[in-house]
């Protein structure tokens, strides 16, 4: 069952002197429960696409449909996680993770219990009364994940959420985010420059190329990989062959652009 449809989507930015088309002719359907990654060279429109899906900006042409409804503004049905956690430093961890519920006026005991329980599952219940500056980068990103999931969105948007972390923390958090998203049966879109990360976490990888950006190719990750934790995926022989295939495709697209 499709949860998200992008139909002939194009985005052009205008200024007093210039007109720049960031993406064009984007047609894509994402099924409920899928984990999709957008990869491609810098400037191909990956983050622009994520901003369009979030409703932060609107397409110049075409439409984006979430659960049968055209996206015309940000919606609680969509959660966003960025490469920086953007936790409010003057709020405690508890206040940070409950902020979305407070904004939506969902303050019942049952609704508050969900993010607290998730924080416990991620090993941070003892940090509930702490402030963001007292936590490591990896811990803060775990809190950002809880904050994103607290309002129970249908679609999760991940914009390079691990890029600011050291490599060991990145690998651990990949497993944690992946398993949490799968356990909650969420649909997710990841934007990343890291081919290995895309292979390790995705059901499907969309390669964007060109300026303006367009879909150049699609890679379906074999079931035996897509159901495994990312760290285990990285150790398989299939991972290496897929990495080489996608790498060569990206190189050829950059040479021809």
From TrEMBL:
CDD domains the record matches: ABC_NrtD_SsuB_transporters
Pfam families: ABC_tran (PF00005)
Residue ranges of domain ABC transporter in the record: 4-235
GO MF term (any one): ATP binding
Keyword terms, alphabetized: ATP-binding, Nucleotide-binding, Transport
Record has ATP-binding as a keyword: yes
Listed name of the protein: Spermidine/putrescine ABC transporter ATP-binding protein
Organism: Salipaludibacillus neizhouensis
């Amino acid at each position: 069952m499709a949860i998200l449809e992008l139909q002939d989507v194009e985005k052009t930015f205008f200024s007093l002197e210039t007109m720049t088309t960031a993406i064009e002719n984007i047609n894509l359907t994402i099924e409920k429960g899928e984990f999709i990654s957008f990869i491609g060279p810098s400037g191909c429109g990956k983050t622009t696409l994520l901003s369009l899906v979030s409703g932060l900006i609107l397409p110049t042409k075409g439409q984006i449909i979430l659960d049968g409804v055209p996206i015309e503004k940000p919606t609680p049905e969509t959660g966003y996680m960025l490469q920086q956690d953007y936790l409010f430093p003057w709020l405690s961890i508890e206040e940070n993770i409950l902020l979305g519920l407070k904004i939506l006026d969902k303050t019942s005991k049952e609704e508050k219990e969900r993010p607290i329980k998730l924080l416990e599952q991620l090993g941070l219940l003892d940090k509930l009364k702490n402030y963001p500056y007292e936590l490591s980068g990896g811990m803060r990103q775990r809190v950002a994940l809880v904050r994103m999931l607290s309002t129970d969105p249908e679609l999760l948007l991940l914009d390079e959420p691990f890029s600011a972390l050291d490599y060991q923390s990145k690998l651990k958090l990949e497993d944690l985010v992946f398993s949490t998203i799968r356990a909650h049966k969420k649909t997710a879109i990841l934007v990343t420059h890291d081919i290995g990360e895309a292979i390790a976490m995705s059901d499907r990888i969309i390669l964007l190329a060109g300026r303006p950006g367009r879909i150049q190719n699609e890679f379906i990750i074999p079931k035996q990989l897509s159901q495994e934790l990312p760290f285990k995926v990285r150790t398989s022989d299939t991972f290496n062959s897929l990495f080489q295939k996608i790498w060569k495709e990206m190189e050829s697209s950059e040479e021809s652009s």
